[in-house]
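User: My collaborator sent over this chain with a note saying "see what the structure looks like." That's all I know about it. Can you take a look?
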Amino acid sequence: MGSILFLAHRMPFPPDRGDKIRGWHVLRHLARSHRVHLCAFADDRRDLRPRPELVEATASRTILWRGKGRTRAVAEALATRRPFSLTAFDAAAMRAAVRDVLAREPIEAIYVFSGQMAQYLPADTNARVVMDFVDMDSAKFAQYAGEATGPMRWLLAREARLLQAFEAKVAERADASLFVSEAEAALFRKATGAPRVRAIGNGIDTAFYDPSAAEPVCEARPLIVFTGQMDYRPNVEAVTWFAEAVLPQVRERHPGARFAIVGRAPAPTVRALAGQPGVLVTGEVPDVRGWLAAASVVVAPLRIARGVQNKVLEAMAMARPVVASSEAAEGIDHDGCLSVARAPTDFAHAISNLFADPAEASKIGARARTQVQRRYGWDAQLAPLDALLERQAA
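Assistant: Without extra context I'll predict from the sequence alone. Here is the result:
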């Protein structure tokens, strides 16, 4: 049993948001056949004390608080000509922690989860390096820049340019660079020309996300549900656009329709939506499955999305009919059991049709769950990791 150093930009347990879900399942998969030494940041005080599940899965853990503010990170980035995505996660204590693990443990492989942590790769190491970018973050900032104006446009374009150069440099060094979908991997290959790039998709725990395992927490019908981290910009923009452009059209045909925005840390813009007719903002909930079970329709109207959306897989696993933007549906092999919409009228029409025919909506949800069970088990998705982490034959 070899030893792996696992670098994560966010504590992977509990798996209660998209990046932590992938991080936890990858770590747990690696722990089955390796001793895993975790070095990670925490941005939630509750995560500073490792849960028993994480302790059991890891040989050692170093969890550091990440308290650097955005203003300081941007100032450091401008002063050092680096991307602020990196300066936000730059900490001397993390460098010391990584050096300590490498000095005391026979590390055979380093698994880097997210590009922000690639700055901690040692300059000289014989360990095999697997770089899990998950998404192409530089492309996301390029999208942001295209929608911004004034100084913010310049800052975001700068970030996209510098971050892409950094990503390409890291990929050149890594033994394998991973992305969550083939579309994302192809985009990275085209933009950087990097070698050894491949896709390893996200999975879903269909035993946990099982419609028989959760009771609906809301009796309101018809109910539209969106789930996600609600201080994350793409989610904020998605629910704002939906509440303002789509929901009024739906309520013209179905006056009793309600839109539940379910997720922790709602931004002020999101909280303000609760003042609109039919909008409910829950904040953090103990178990999102109850809201998914209550949903007549789940929506994912993201305009900026990278890779595979866990929220869509979770809703499909819960046998819910889903209406998603083309961006949110990208990379998901849904085999026709997912409605894809773009314009507000398209969203409103698809949702209204599902409301009008509950029996058909139920059939679509059942097909969605079957598709997820067949295609998106975590064991099947992560099986290629084992070969990637083996040393090349001597």
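A starting point for your reply to your collaborator: The two ends are 18 Å apart (CA to CA).
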